[in-house]
């Protein structure tokens, strides 16, 4: 039987998690600051009754799209999945930047 590791946080980490959350950081950013996995932050945040912060703002997506990045590139920069970026790009009415492939720009 596979045993799941407990997602233990010190009192100091719990306090810091809450402070970082209140500053507006999302789970990946908090995880990086605390030196733990994103899943651990998600689990503990839920246990504390804290809602999930958005991974990125609409303006961040618009700015990256304006730089010509495709969905995969934007997802990497924003710490999100391609599907999430695709959904929000469509919601904002932004066309796909298909001219960028494999890191090369075609004119």
UniProtKB/TrEMBL annotation:
<dbReference type="InterPro" id="IPR013324">
    <property type="entry name" value="RNA_pol_sigma_r3/r4-like"/>
</dbReference>
<protein>
    <submittedName>
        <fullName>Uncharacterized protein</fullName>
    </submittedName>
</protein>
């Amino acid at each position: 039987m596979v045993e799941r590791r407990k997602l233990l946080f010190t009192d100091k980490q719990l306090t810091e998690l809450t402070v970082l959350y209140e500053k507006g950081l999302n789970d990946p950013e908090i995880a990086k600051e605390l030196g733990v996995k994103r899943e651990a932050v998600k689990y503990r945040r839920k246990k504390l009754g804290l809602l999930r912060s958005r991974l990125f703002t609409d303006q961040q997506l618009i700015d990256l799209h304006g730089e010509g990045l495709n969905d995969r590139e934007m997802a990497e920069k924003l710490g999100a999945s391609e599907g999430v970026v695709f959904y929000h790009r469509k919601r904002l009415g932004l066309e796909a930047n298909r001219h960028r492939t494999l890191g090369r720009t075609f004119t």
